[in-house]
Amino acid sequence: MSSVLSNVGKWWWRDAAARAALTWTLVATKRSVGDSRWEEARAILDYQARRRGRPAEPVAVRRWAELEFRAAAGLRDFAAMEALFARYPELAGLDEEAALLLWRLARASGDDAAAVTIRELWRGSEKMPLAWICAEVDVLWASDRCEEAKSLLAKVTDGSPGSFELPILLRQAMLATDGAARFEELAIAYRIDPMNADLRGLRAILQERTGQTAQARVNYVAALAADPGNQLRRDDLASFYLRQGDLATAVRTWREGLDEKSPDYLWVRVVFWRRMLGVPALDAAEGLPAVRRARFVGWLADLPPDRFWDEKGYLALNLPDAHAQTEPSVFWLRLLEQIRGGDWAGAGDFISSAPTRAASIAPSLLASLRTTVAVRQGKSPADVGLASPGPFPLAGAHRWWWVTAKALRGGREAIAEFTPVAMGPQAASAALLAAGWNGPAVALAGWSSASTLDTPGWIRLGLLEARRMVRGTLDALVWGRTLPEYPETDYAVAALKLSAGRSDAVSDLRQLAADEGATGYAAGLLLATWLMERDHVAEATALVESTPALAAAPEGVALLARAHLAAGRKDEASKLYAPLAEISLEAGAWLAREAFAKGDLDNARWLTEFWLRQYPEDTQLRANLALVVAAQGWN
Predict the structure, then answer these.
(1) How far apart are CA 361 and CA 346, in angstroms?
(2) Which of 113, 258, 491, 546 lies in the 20 to 30 Å Cα band around 230?
(3) 578: Cβ–Cβ under 8 A, 6 or more apart, which residues?
(4) Is the peptide bond before 420 cis (omega within 30 degrees of 0)?
(5) CA 377, CA 471: separation in Å to the nearest integer?
(6) pLDDT in tens, 550-604
(7) Closest Cα partner for 172 from 190, 192, 189?
(8) Given this model, what pLDDT does residue 286 score?
(9) In the predicted model, what is the mean pLDDT of the chain?
(10) Neighbours of 457 (CB within 10 A)
């Protein structure tokens, strides 16, 4: 009997101690949250969870979740906020600023249902009504629902222009249909806060929409620099690179900002686009936060390299039904798996029901594949037709987009070029190469089907380069030996040999450089550059001077200028570089350094700023500009 009473006493004492520890934890965490000591608040909760576990009593569970959510919001831990919101949606009603962040995340990831839930929690009780209205105006504008956006903005301006609140000025500028009015609004906003991230971001969007991509990139970068901790800003910059077809830079931009606090949809983008580039979903050294291993992003990262999709595995994740509609990668991976299995009819049905978000990330690729399906069903591309203005960005576009667009408009030569490719074994790889999706392009091409004589040369060359990027130089060289002998193919193989350090590469390139066409020019430039980098200046100079087309081209002139520099003839180098000041970064940087050394600070600054606008991420150019500005003593 005494032992029973003793055990009861010990149990009661331990329970009382646990309750006291929990009470202390909740009180201490609340105090830390109240003082905005977010790291301390999280540390207290983590310590209690490790030592005694999380509470089980409903009231304590609720209080714990509230404190955890507030700490996550203060730390901008989007992953934790999303996870807590998924379990306790009502938590979004605790903190309006955190709710607004969650709402923007939900919109960015396509989770419209979550966005509606969050908005309704605050509708009618907003303490930040202007912030909510501006956020909703942004969404309407991005969806081209400008009239609705104007009506909503009128609620805070009473329909009258001339507000000098920066958020309103920016929205009035982006909704202005008159260019002069838009410029005036932006000019006022710029005078109020020239480094404002919203202002920079808006200018970037407007410039991109009007085709000023170089200026747009500068402002996307500036917006992120003004608000470096904002993952939505980083997403904007990466998405810009993606729209410009620069997949590698887009992925790198996303990845550089990812950590354990990042929202899942950004992790998904990195894993998906790396698969499309044909590189490992995640490098072994990078890892993936353990909390995500059971989620979609972890499952996606673990897919075998030779598979795009596993329907049974996906269904086993037991994700919400809406996930497949809101997550673009689901559509594309399912489509690629159907094409891999040779089911073009099923792929056509799938394409016809493509969700808007999925279609928007690669509209040209989707239109090309849709046309391919039609041709394989016995139709002409002209039967499909091209909507105006069409999905193809033809300015500086890949040749295949030009061919597809012209074929859809009924061009006979384009149809004659498009049809055999669409009917052949490289139907999917052609479009994927044009889109820069090297991973699936190589996977769907097979080994020998592209080596036939009737495969267009650009596809063979594209696959050769894609294989090098995806599987390495040795694999590409082995595959290159199976290709028919053409000057273009021979040049590509010789270039691969040079990068692999093969001794016969130089003799191959010398032989090709004797050709008077484009192949000879390319071979001469590559070999001359290689020789110059290894201090074989005389050989490089002789090669350039013996190739008229190369000697007259900016690249050849720059090589000759470099030869003069190697010989200490600065004046001769400057004369050659001068016409290239705005054409070649090498020339512009040299002339800027010379101007700085001679005290011509205005010219040094002008040249440095010119090239910095082209390459806003270049740290050396930024350092050079800082030196020039410091020497001038003004900015």
Answers:
(1) 21
(2) 113
(3) 587, 591
(4) no
(5) 34
(6) 888 888 899 999 998 888 898 898 899 999 888 888 899 999 999 999 999 999 9
(7) 189
(8) 58
(9) 82
(10) 14
CB 104 within 8 A of CB 92: no
The dihedrals phi and psi of 551, each to the nearest 5 degrees, come to: -65, -25
Asked if residue 330 lies in contact with residue 323, where contact means CB atoms within 8 angstroms, the answer is yes
Query: Whole-angstrom Cα distance, residue 161 to residue 157?
Result: 7
- The arithmetic mean of pLDDT across residues 129-158, rounded, is 81
Using the Cα atoms of residue 612, residue 617, residue 621 and residue 626 in order, give the sign of their dihedral.
Answer: positive
Domain membership flag for residue 281: no
- Asked if residue 478 lies in contact with residue 457, where contact means CB atoms within 8 angstroms, the answer is no
The interaxial angle of helices 231-243 and 96-109, nearest 10 deg, is 20
* Exposure letters 523-539 (e unless 16+ CB within 10 A, then b): bbbbbbbbbbeeeebeb
Specify the pLDDT at position 160: 47
pLDDT, mean of residues 288-317? 77
Q: What is the pLDDT of residues 331-351, one digit of tens each?
A: 999 999 999 988 999 998 888
Q: Which two tokens stand for residue 570?
A: 């600065």
Given a cut of 70, whether residue 386 has pLDDT beyond it is no
Could you give the number of structural domains in the chain? Answer: 1
What six digits make up the tokens of 7? 């055990």
**pLDDT tens per residue, range 461-484:** 888 888 888 888 888 888 887 777
251 domain residue, yes or no: no
Classify 37 in phi/psi space as left (phi over 0), alpha (psi -120 to 50) or beta: beta
For residue 74, the enclosing domain spans: 18-96
Q: Can you give 507-532 as a three-state secondary structure string?
A: HHHHHHHCCCCHHHHHHHHHHHHHHH
33 in a domain, yes or no?
yes
- Side chain identity at residue 136, one-letter code: E
Q: Does residue 255 belong to any structural domain of this protein?
A: no
Pair 385, 408: CB distance under 8 Å: yes
* 3-state class (DSSP) for residue 121: helix
Nearest-CA neighbor of 258 among 242, 240, 279, 282?
282
201, containing H or E segment: helix 197-209
